[in-house]
Amino acid sequence: MQVYSIDGIVPVVDPTAFVHPTAVLIGDVIIGPRCYIGPNACLRGDFGRLVIKEGANVQDTCVMHGFPGTETVVDVDGHIGHGAVLHGCYIGKNALVGMNAVVMDNARIGEASIVAACAFVKADFDCPPRSLLAGTPAKIIRELSDKEIEWKGKGTAEYQNLSIRSLQTMQKVAPLTEVEPDRKRIDIPDVKPLYAVKQQD
């Protein structure tokens, strides 16, 4: 990981968290236990504080930042999808922010809610628990079902497992020059996209 202090403030990373070597942490960043911070994520605590609580994940190319005096928080088991931007907001416990979504200043995403991919959540938006948000600007579409919340929890658990797998087995290597015979696959059978889970009903 690329870790920088600023104004004498040093990022904090729990030893059970995995932070990819290409991720950038600057200043007032606090990463809790069992978190996953993905490749090329940029967590800039050079103005406000950034807090990633236990079991949360912030995936590849995500950006977190905030105005001076603010806290940008991903609460316990929060799940931040590829390329999302969080700026001075609060992401509730067990909530999911989809790929390339943007959540703006002082917005609050309620517990066990889902922000759809590419949504834009405007400043000061207050999202109640168990909500599905989508659109630009984002609006509450409906309440989430128990099955959808269960699906989200399983996905987050796999990112918690990925932290362990990465800490134990990830290493920088030279690429092979050809595909080996009987090349094995990474096998995680229980993880499916939500649309596929719904098709099983």
TrEMBL record:
InterPro entries: Hexapep, PaaY, Transf_Hexapept/Carb_Anhydrase, Trimer_LpxA-like_sf. Pfam families: Hexapep (PF00132). Gene3D superfamilies: Hexapeptide repeat proteins (2.160.10.10). CDD domains: LbH_paaY_like. It comes from the Bacteria. PANTHER family: DYNACTIN SUBUNIT P25, GAMMA CARBONIC ANHYDRASE-LIKE 1, MITOCHONDRIAL-RELATED. This is Phenylacetic acid degradation protein PaaY. It comes from Oceanospirillum multiglobuliferum.
